[in-house]
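Q: I'm writing up a methods section and want to include an example of the input and output format. Could you take the sequence below and give the corresponding predicted structure tokens, formatted cleanly so I can copy it straight into the document?
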Amino acid sequence: MAKANTKTGKAKTSNITISSLRKWNIVAGVAHLIQMILILVLANAFALPVTATYVAGPPGTPPSAPVTLFEIRTAYAIAIFFGLSALFHFIVACPPFNARYDRGLTQGHNYFRWVEYSLSSSVMIVLIAQLLGIFDVGALVAIFGVNASMILFGWLQERFTKPGETLIAFWFGCIAGLVPWLIFLIFIIAPKSPNPVEIPGFVWGIVISLFLLFNSFAIVQYLQYKPVGKWSNYLRGERAYIILSLTAKSALAWQIFAGTLVPAT
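A: Here is the clean output for your methods example:
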């Protein structure tokens, strides 16, 4: 009898909390969608190049001059990560996928989140790379890929372990996630640069704020899987992810807008 009551109590609490998370997802989806529209309407045509440098002879021969393969409209890139987030928030909040989302939460996982993050956060990290002067197509693809790998390690942690078990996938993800930031550090320090490096203030703001926010996601998963105190409730972490995702994307978008996308008057 006591055992049945405990299960019923847990189910009731979970259902109430999961119901509130549906509202959180709808609100977050609307917020992302509105910001996507605002960026597309208000932003200028600022774009950054994607370049390639090709072999010009035998090994050791100076490379050819970089060629521009194409340009990425910064406003469109921002719209992509806002749009992806809005889409996935609406997917998990609406039939037929909300039942699968709710069921996953009761089992301690949300695979929708990892798919969205692997795409949207990788677009974000590529944007930051371009703002720091990283334009080479190989470098940008690698940065996108290693960031996506970081997210997928988070998925593996959630898929194959339970709180209190090994954190090996989590730590591998942390190592992968550190790589883009080490690359950024090289471009900030700019060793042997022939000219003084002048990083705009808004870019400093982006690098610092997004570094802190990106690492906050890792802290949430660590607290969930250690587990620590109230974070042993998986739904608390889910709500934190929703808030962090909206905060990180909004911070990046509007700092870029203020620095480069404000239309000329």
